[in-house]
């Protein structure tokens, strides 16, 4: 059910934009929109189910780290921008004859979406890894694809009807989503500078016990991390505690890009991460989708 819930959310956000671009690129193929969408979803379902089984069986050994996932998001952004520019490009009249698509078969294009994931897909993959079971991992990713199916079907049946101004407006919207996705990829890879101003040390979230161990507490909520910006002492043993309470958003897929650390938090509970003795500087964190950034400034 969690995979399906993530799919429904993804279908309303970044996955919807990516699939709109792909389906626009496929528009005009023989067989009609309904056959195109069915073939696209079949390929996507097969590829993601196989990936889920692999992730559930082998786990973190086949799960790419934050930099690799950031690159995949950036690739998705480039692909989105490509399709957006195609929609913005003036088209000669087709005199009632659909233009042949330059993309491959819809079944193969659907399967290839596993290589250009949206941000929430990456969170679903972490859930499959955490399952520790090929069957459960396959079910998570299959549920994810089925969750995206309703909106994908609507988009696929309507995108071929877009011409003129509506197509150009869609192109502008896709360019905006491409820029947002690119920023998420840069953030997930740890390549986007953190320009937030470090606040003073707050005793409500940073405490030191009698043994000298510093504990930093961050709450993972559905709509972000609280607090998102913290300051703490450098050069002392430090533990980061992540607190969740009924959390179901992508913030559960917590990532420390520069440490190469990714883990799936429980829906409710407290998770400890040993940070050692951090040197002066900033330690950024973000969800696995590249959204909801934050940082801890050690000084």
UniProtKB/TrEMBL annotation:
The chain crosses the membrane at residues 6-28, 40-62, 68-88, 108-129, 135-157, 169-192. InterPro entries: Cupredoxin, UreH-like_TM_dom. Residues 6-167 form the Urease accessory protein UreH-like transmembrane domain. Keywords: Membrane, Transmembrane, Transmembrane helix. The keyword Magnesium does not apply. This is Urease accessory protein UreH-like transmembrane domain-containing protein. Pfam families: DsbD_2 (PF13386).
